[in-house]
Amino acid sequence: MNNIPFKGVIAYPVTPFDQNENIDLPLFKKQVERLVTSGSHAIAPLGSTGVMPYLNDTEKEAITEATMQQVAGRVPTLVGVSNLTTERTIYHAQFAEKAGATAVMIIPMSYWKLSDQEIIKHYDSVASKISIPIMVYNNPATSGVDMSSNLLKRLLEIPNVTMVKESSGDVQRMHYLRRELGEDVAFYNGSNPLALAAFSAGANGWCTAAPNLIPELNIALYNAIQENDLQKARELFYQQMDLLKFIVAKGLPRSIKAGLDLLGIGGGHFKSPLNALNENEVEELKNILKTLNYNIEE
Amino acid sequence: MNNIPFKGVIAYPVTPFDQNENIDLPLFKKQVERLVTSGSHAIAPLGSTGVMPYLNDTEKEAITEATMQQVAGRVPTLVGVSNLTTERTIYHAQFAEKAGATAVMIIPMSYWKLSDQEIIKHYDSVASKISIPIMVYNNPATSGVDMSSNLLKRLLEIPNVTMVKESSGDVQRMHYLRRELGEDVAFYNGSNPLALAAFSAGANGWCTAAPNLIPELNIALYNAIQENDLQKARELFYQQMDLLKFIVAKGLPRSIKAGLDLLGIGGGHFKSPLNALNENEVEELKNILKTLNYNIEE
Amino acid sequence: MNNIPFKGVIAYPVTPFDQNENIDLPLFKKQVERLVTSGSHAIAPLGSTGVMPYLNDTEKEAITEATMQQVAGRVPTLVGVSNLTTERTIYHAQFAEKAGATAVMIIPMSYWKLSDQEIIKHYDSVASKISIPIMVYNNPATSGVDMSSNLLKRLLEIPNVTMVKESSGDVQRMHYLRRELGEDVAFYNGSNPLALAAFSAGANGWCTAAPNLIPELNIALYNAIQENDLQKARELFYQQMDLLKFIVAKGLPRSIKAGLDLLGIGGGHFKSPLNALNENEVEELKNILKTLNYNIEE
Amino acid sequence: MNNIPFKGVIAYPVTPFDQNENIDLPLFKKQVERLVTSGSHAIAPLGSTGVMPYLNDTEKEAITEATMQQVAGRVPTLVGVSNLTTERTIYHAQFAEKAGATAVMIIPMSYWKLSDQEIIKHYDSVASKISIPIMVYNNPATSGVDMSSNLLKRLLEIPNVTMVKESSGDVQRMHYLRRELGEDVAFYNGSNPLALAAFSAGANGWCTAAPNLIPELNIALYNAIQENDLQKARELFYQQMDLLKFIVAKGLPRSIKAGLDLLGIGGGHFKSPLNALNENEVEELKNILKTLNYNIEE
Question: Membrane-spanning residues where (chains A, B, C, D) (predicted)?
């Protein structure tokens, strides 16, 4: 289907800064290049991993454009454009479309919990201003809103709302989604430790920052599922489970940047108040990567 | 291994009463017979489904003995013997062993949350008084105690504590258990809606009351997993998912008894204050069973 | 009102055992005597503090009778008679009435979450078999059932159901109860750390094990409230707050028994698997009591 | 103390928009004037009630300046300047100081949960750039971070961090704060339904949007506490409790604006996706206000 452009491993890059807290675009492009060449099936800048909420408009636009330049059509792109206000969400969605994004991802960000009517109007307003597909993102932990399957059904009636990303961390919700929304609706797993369970449940893809560190294992897991080989998938999952749990427990931007430093690629600096992992945490990550046979620069 | 006697579908019978709230042993035996002949791999009386905590000692003993008589060694048996006090737990564990049970299941029941030391001493005391294997049961929702993997590791050092049943409803705990305890430890899933996810994660078996109603589907799911056919397992899981969710949402004893009535086998009465499903709930269950092509007596 | 026999500080004794795990009745009577003479306004045996769920029928009956003998009508008594089955609840309620209890306390114990209809029938059945007042006890943490104010309203329509004890630990529920049930309904606080907030909200009394250790402070707090002296009540509350938090955090039976040992009265032994506080915890309790100027036997 | 400039009722205005979603400054000033003349002890623009996170920099600055002009030194002011990034927080704090704010309020906003070290550095960085006092705001529900009393202690060592606002909705945390931080630390209640419990616990003030609707009742409650008249305070609290619960349950901006419309003052429009209460909710609010004898324009 034209408007469901994603399957497999959708990779989320970080946003690297220099020491003055300005975006380091050359390093960003290097990281994106590595995600593409190591086999990820799509690139998703300005996600949680990309600390999108901490960026100003200029920074968001620079990251969007740099992604398009570097990916250059080799794989589809999914740009995060969520914002507290409808007006700003439209602005960034239109920017992404004009820049060449394949699709946009929108979570109903909220400081004040939104009603279903407010959420519907929000997506309706944005969808009517762009023509590329929208992935609805449900993540109660960060948005403060847990969208019901009835609400998701309603949102999927909007013509270019065609995909759902579920990150509540409960595999039963994925079962329920697929049951309620039907097999035709594309749903994506956004919870790394549920990678095996979500693919078993029939997820179309896995939205993850892990390919910044262990792309081979992530893609091999997807391939085993495609080959209907559960035993192999299980084995691959248990191999990478410690890494998946670590990056979620310590925070994706911090742990991915630390891992990129350890792998010699470079993770870049942070924007305050966010800061790097402490030494013990870096040591723990180093041990996990070594166990997986990655070469660590000492 | 001799002391890990279970795999596959471990079926939990209800405890039927007559109108005077006395146990209906003939009906119980009929229900057990059906569980055995429809292919369940083990029978587990006096579980939550069997409303064990509501029974007095005489009733527990009658159910234990009736199970042994009816099963007659055709499949292994797992008898629930949990009790708030160590003294009564020992009593019932010894009774079960003497009656011929293959193994006993023990959850650390608590009114006052137990410390790790208290739990270890409890299992130690019981284990030293019997020689059949013990399955440790973790279910924070009913016991009030969530046993850590460290504690479970310690309990598994007791020679005849050989199995773990996990019912917290979070598949990530199963991943963690297998990771921490090693592949040799037998772990069992006690959460019906997680049947697919738990088998995908490598569970040895599924402790469930569902075979009272849909034994063919339950066993087919296990067989698909054994055949490493994830697509078939997924399809079978989605077929039975509504039934699995219903019996958990409405309470196992109530929903299984209602289903046994609908199927013409008879579920029996309840012990107060527990009571039957209401009419709307029965109607809902009837529709689920009809969708699965079961013949319902109208 | 004749059927609201309690106000002020309702004291909960522990149940002491000897080294063979038999009830130590002489020690129990000594503890009860101290509760009465130190000014508690009522005595409530067989509560959570009295580890009622761990006792067999004989033990419950012995404790009930010993309480009546020792109190000898000097203050009213409130006997816990809750049980999973309706039949056993009736049995113990009738025993308490015959023994001379002023009232009984009943929590809707549940292994399987009860429906509102099941709870109503349970209270109706018990209430119709006794003529003394019943205090309904809401404590979702131990019973697994959180009774709504609508359900409580319905229960209070049963003639001898006249009091509500609220232990959810949320003062807003007490506000709501009083608002919904009206000022005439007697409500009691069962959460020690909420003593000040609950009295401020208008609670008729405080159900507590603390008078085993610090009766003077507990009663002084109630008196300050009676005198409408908020500043004094606040000061008294902050004085005893550490003790109140400690006994809740460590478990009432364990911490009260340890305190009784420290005070030279004697707390008695436990029934397995329950066990004593560890040394560090006892040291912490000793320091709290010393700060409150209690003499500790070293 | 010079650097603890607040006590009593600290009133939070809304931010009214016109139909084109531009700020309606004349209406804002009218609302602020009413808060001052009806007796509030301080004015706090750009709080949650003022939908600060939805405003761009220009809008925030306009609201800050309009507040200073309208209040004109009659009562102290507390301006919200929280932001996800340290750089923007400093910017807005400096703007507020220059505009004449008495103090600023800062919550550690987070998309990615901050470590204690990150939070300390954030407050340190901001505090070193301004000379007016800072109120630390703890509200895990909106910030995603629950600051421990140890962390709060550390933050209070920063010279111009002098006040704590607690909005977790648990009165036990206020007890604990006062106990751990000492009586000299000024703590403020930010949870409307806890107004009585928090004042009973010794809170210095009440941060609330309620004075937009019922200023007389809010101030009378504070006065009763000052007079040590618990019975009167309790009575006043129960009078206003339904209103306090309503505005929290329905969201402060929505319910306060609806109330201002009902009272004939005018609440203004919203910024999308936020929207007005529905008709049933407005009707409910109307009934609550009528019960409190407010004149409602029909």
Answer: none
Which CATH number characterizes residue C17's domain?
A: 3.20.20.70
C261 belongs to a structural domain = no
d(CA A35, CA A14): 11
The rounded distance, in Å, linking the Cα atoms of C83 and C64 is 15
Cα atoms in the Cβ-side hemisphere of radius 13 Å centred on A52: 24
- The answer to whether residue B168 scores a pLDDT higher than 90 is no
Q: Please give the Cα distance from A62 to A57 (Å, whole number).
A: 9
Q: Judging by beta carbons within 10 Å of its beta carbon (0-12, 13-18, 19+), is residue D74 exposed, middle or buried? A: exposed
Nearest CA in chain C to D192: C172
A229 touches chain B (CB under 8 A): yes
φ, ψ for residue D101, nearest 5 deg: -65, 145
Angle ∠(C286,C292,C298) on CA atoms, nearest 5: 35
- Using the Cβ of A264 and the Cβ atoms of chain B, whether some distance falls under 8 Å is answered with no
Q: Which residue has the higher pLDDT, C297 or A51?
A: A51
Chain D closest-CA separation from residue C6 CA (Å): 21
| DSSP character string of D153-195 | HHHTTSTTEEEEEE-SS-HHHHHHHHHHH-TTSEEEE--GGGH
Instruction: Label residue D185 by pLDDT band (50, 70, 90).
Output: confident
Please tell me which chains touch C, using 3 or more CB pairs under 8 Å as the contact test.
B, D
Asked whether at least 3 C-beta pairs link D and C within 8 Å, the reply is: yes
pLDDT at C1 over 50: no
D49 annotated among ligand-binding-site residues: yes
Length of chain A: 298
Q: What torsion do the CA atoms of D46, D47, D48, D53 make, to the nearest 10 degrees?
A: 40
Q: ipTM value of the model?
A: 0.94
The three-point CA angle A16-D142-D206 to 5° equals 135
C264 domain residue, yes or no: no
Considering C60, C91, C165, C188, which one is annotated as catalytic? C165
Element containing residue C183 per DSSP (H, E): none
The residues near A106 (Cβ < 8 Å, ≥ 6 apart) are: A80, A81, A82, A89, A93, A123, A126, A134, A135, A136, A137
DSSP state of B168: S
Assign B40 to helix, strand or coil.
coil
Q: Is residue B271 part of a domain?
A: no
- Asked about A294 being catalytic, the answer comes back as no
Q: Measure Cα distances from D292 to B210, B215, D240, D241, D296 in Å.
A: 56, 62, 8, 11, 11
A73 — phi, psi (to 5°)?
Answer: 80, 0
Number of domains in chain D: 1
- Coil, helix or strand at residue D100: coil
A54 as an active site residue: the answer is: no
Cβ-based burial of D223 (10 A; exposed 0-12, middle 13-18, buried ≥19): middle
The answer to whether the predicted template modeling score (pTM) of the entire model surpasses 0.90 is: yes
In a domain, D259, yes or no: no
